[in-house]
Structures
1.
Amino acid sequence: MSSAITCAREIQSAVHRDGRFEVRIGIHLGEVVLADGDVHGDGVNIASRVQSEVNAGEIGFTKAVNDNLKNKEGFDVTFVGERSLKNVAEPVELYLLLDQPTSTPEAI
């Protein structure tokens, strides 16, 4: 899972250097199904909802992802809070990666 965060961090750095636009990235660990040339599943749905909860230039992720990062060095993370997300039965714990070029420490 740290490779997904590292990849997201690299994407944000490249976009930040380019300076023409900013992106929001949401990451979740869950089911992903490839069918008929499309991507479906709870993992995709939740990641999509998480990205809509963060600001441009930020990387947000769920508790499932954070649990995989806890004992790894090089990730400055803050807990943002629980969010009720559209089409997700239970509230989701949301975290934010702080050590990225465009991040801001303010709450979402």
2.
Amino acid sequence: MAAFIDWLSNTGLSAWIRESNSLWAYPGVITFHSVGLAIMVGLSAVIALRVLGVASGLPLAAMSRLYGMIWVGFVLNAASGLLLLISEPTLLVNKLLWFKLALIAASITTIVRMNRRVLLTPEAKANRVPDGGRGLAYATLVLWSAATTVGRLTAYLGQ
């Protein structure tokens, strides 16, 4: 692993992201990462809060339409996250990074289940939350909060 980290750290792309004064280097990558996070986590939270009863005047089933934008946010986050990792490959040995990725996987699994088991059901069309829907909503909020917090901590805490 050390040889791979050393190689990756010495690539032109890694050095450019880390060292360039260009707004398209680190500042641009971290900005895209933040925008992707806001889209993905923000819309997931909107759906979860609607399932929990906030803005109950909005049709529950219509929340399913937000998933296209959630996936746009996910792709933006995955691509920018990969570039951030390339710029700082020593994160590959940071246990918090792997914990964050596990939390993201759990969060994605939860929002996919919410769409299938809550929003795309006959109950949702009748503006009712199916059994288990509230639990998925709470899980979504907790998992995304944890993933976001752990993601920030990776920048400050060592291996």
